[in-house]
Amino acid sequence: MASYWFLQEVGVNVKRQHSSEGSQILPRPPVVTVMGHVDHGKTSLLDALRQTAVAATEAGGITQHLGAFVVGMTSGASITFLDTPGHAAFSAMRARGAAVTDIVVLVVAADDGVMPQTLEAVSHAKLANVPIVVAINKCDKPAADPERVKVQLASEGLQLEEMGGDVQVVEVSAVKKTGLDDLEECLLLQAELMNLKARVDGPAQAYVVEAKLDKGRGPLATAIVKAGTLVSGQHIVVGSEWGRIRAIRDMVGKLAQQATPAMPVVLEGLKGLPMAGDDIVVVESEERARMLSAGRKKKFEKDRLRQIMEDRPVVEEPSEEDGPVAVRVEMPIVVKADVQGTVQAVTDALKTLNSPQVFVNVVHVGVGPISQSDIDLAQACGACIIGFNVKTPPGSVSLAATKSGIKIMLHRVIYRLLEDVGNMIVEKAPGTSETHVAGEAEVLSIFELKGRSKAAGGDMKIAGCKVIDGRVSRASTMRLLRSGEVVFEGCCSSLKRETQDVDAVGKGSECGMMLRDCQDYRVGDVIQCLEQVVRKPKFVSSQSGAVRIEC
C-alpha cells in the first residue's frame, strides 16, 4: 500500500511530474490534524506516536496551543501533525487546524463517547471538506465501550467503513500504546488514496498556525508550507506585517535553508507579530513588502474600528411602557498572552461572558509579558489585566499595579481564567430588583377602635391575623388579597404581637395589623408582605467547557 511519496522517502527512484506551466509537482507528506473533545487524549496519543511526554507538561492537563511537528512513523514515512486544543474557548484554533490540513484524526474517548467538541470537530472537518479517520482512545479503561461510540458517530452522520461507508475507525490506547500501527496504516492508506502532491518550485504558499514574541529573537511565526518553497533571505508579507526571513528553523529548533510543502517551520525576521491564520506572501523586494504591508494595515485598522462599533452595546432610552430598565455597566479588560492564537482564543472566550448587565470590553490585547505601558493603560480606563501563560510581572511593574489599584490575574488554564472573570462579572453586575413575597398572614378576625380614625372621621379597624408562611415585617409593603384578587397595596402603619409593637412576626404567630388608608378587611383575606430583593446573575460552566452568564 506504499504511497508515491513514501516510495521516494525510502529511496525508490520515482519520476518527477511537471505541470503544464513547467512547475515541478512532487508527492508530499500529509498534514494531519488531531481533534476531539477536551481530555479525550489527543496529545497523549501523539506522545505515544512520537515517544514524548508533552501531555504531562500541559497546564491543567489540557492543550492550550496549536502545536505543529513531524512524526517519523515506524514504516519510515513521515507525517506532519497539528495538535489542537479541545476546550470550548479554542474553537478558532480548531478551525485553523482544519483549514490547513489534509486529514483529520477525530479522537473520541471510549468511556465518554461523543461530546460537544467532538461534534464541533466533525463540523470543522466537513466545512473544510477534509476526510476523517476516527481514533477511539482509552480502550484500556474498564468503562470503555467502542461499539457504543461507533453507534453515536453513525447517528451524527459519519459513514463508518464497517457500516458501508468510507470513514476508517481504529481502536487505540495511548497509555498501553496499542492500536498505533493500525492508526498509522489507516493514515498512510488515506494519504495514498488522496494522492497528495504539491508544487515545490516557485514562491511559497504558506499559513501561520501560531505566533509569539521571543525576548531574544523577536516576533516568531510557526507556519505550514502548502506549496512552493520558502527560502531564507526572502522578503515576505504575513497578514499586515512584513519582514525578511532571517532564519528558518524546524520544530526541534534546527536551522534550515528552506521549507518545502507540508513542512512546519518557525520563521524569524518579521518586523511585527502576525495573527494566527494569516497567509504568507513572498514578494520580490523590501519596497514591495512595505507597500503591501501598509495597505493591509490600513484595511485591518478600518475593519477593527468597524468591529469595535458593532460590538459596542446599544443603550436604548427607557419608556414608561417598558417598565424598569436594568443598568448595564462596563468591565474593561487588558489581555496579555504568550502566543497570538491564545490571545485570540482568550479574547473570544471573554466576549461570550457578556450579559445584559455587564459588558466585557477588551480594550487592549498583546503578546508577551505584562509591561508598565499595560499598567498605565489599565489605570487610564479602569481595567483589570489578565495574563495567560505569561510570567509574573517584574517587581517594579507589580509595585506600580499595586499602587494604582490595578488587579492582575495570572492564569495558565483557560477554564480557571473564565471562572474567575465570571465571578468578577457576578460581583460587578448591579443585579435585577424583584418583588418577592416574604410572608403571608390570614385575617381571622376584625377589631374596631371607636373614633380613632381622624382622617376617615370614624372608627379604625384592626385585622387580627395569623402568619401562615414566612414572616411579615412592619417596614415592608403590604398587599391585601381577597379571593386571589388584589384589593389594596400600601404601607403597614402598625404591627402588634399581643399588646407590644413589634418589627416582624414569624410563621405560626398571631398579630394585629393596620394598613395605612385601608379599612376594608374581611375574615379570610390574605395579607402578603412584599420585599424588594436584588437578584444577581449566575456564572454557569458546562461539562463541555462552555461558559455563560445567566441573568
Q: How would you describe this structure to a colleague?
A:
The protein is an alpha+beta fold. The chain has eleven helices and 32 strands. It has a six-stranded mixed β-sheet with strand order 4-5-3-6-7-8, sandwiched between helices. Helix 5 links the parallel strand 7 and strand 8. Helix 3 packs parallel to helix 4. The longest helix is centred in the middle third of the chain and has 26 residues. It is elongated, with a radius of gyration of 33 Å. The N terminus is likely disordered. This is Translation initiation factor IF-2, mitochondrial. It is found in: Mitochondrion. One of its GO terms (molecular function) is translation initiation factor activity.
Mean pLDDT: 80
Q: Considering DSSP H and I runs of 4 or more, what fraction of the residues is helical? A: 10-25%
The helix count comes to 11
CATH class of the largest domain: Alpha Beta
Q: How big a fraction of the residues is strand? A: 35-45%
Strands side by side in the biggest sheet:
4-5-3-6-7-8
CATH superfamily of the largest domain: P-loop containing nucleotide triphosphate hydrolases
Number of domains: 4
Using DSSP, what is the number of strands?
32
Question: What secondary-structure arrangement, pairings included, does this model have?
Answer:
Layout: H1 4-9, E1 17-18, E2 24-27, E3 31-36, H2 42-50, E4 67-72, E5 78-83, H3 91-99, E6 103-109, H4 116-127, E7 132-137, H5 146-155, E8 168-171, H6 180-194, E9 197-199, E10 205-214, E11 218-227, E12 230-231, E13 235-238, E14 241-249, E15 255-256, E16 258-259, E17 264-270, E18 279-283, H7 286-311, E19 329-337, H8 340-351, E20 358-367, H9 372-381, E21 384-388, H10 395-404, E22 408-411, H11 414-428, E23 432-453, E24 458-473, E25 477-482, E26 485-497, E27 500-501, E28 504-506, E29 510-515, E30 526-535, E31 538-541, E32 547-550
Parallel strand pairs: 3-5, 3-6, 6-7, 7-8, 19-20, 19-21, 21-22
Antiparallel strand pairs: 1-2, 2-9, 4-5, 10-11, 10-18, 11-17, 12-16, 13-14, 13-18, 14-15, 14-17, 23-24, 23-30, 24-28, 24-29, 25-26, 25-30, 26-27, 26-29, 31-32
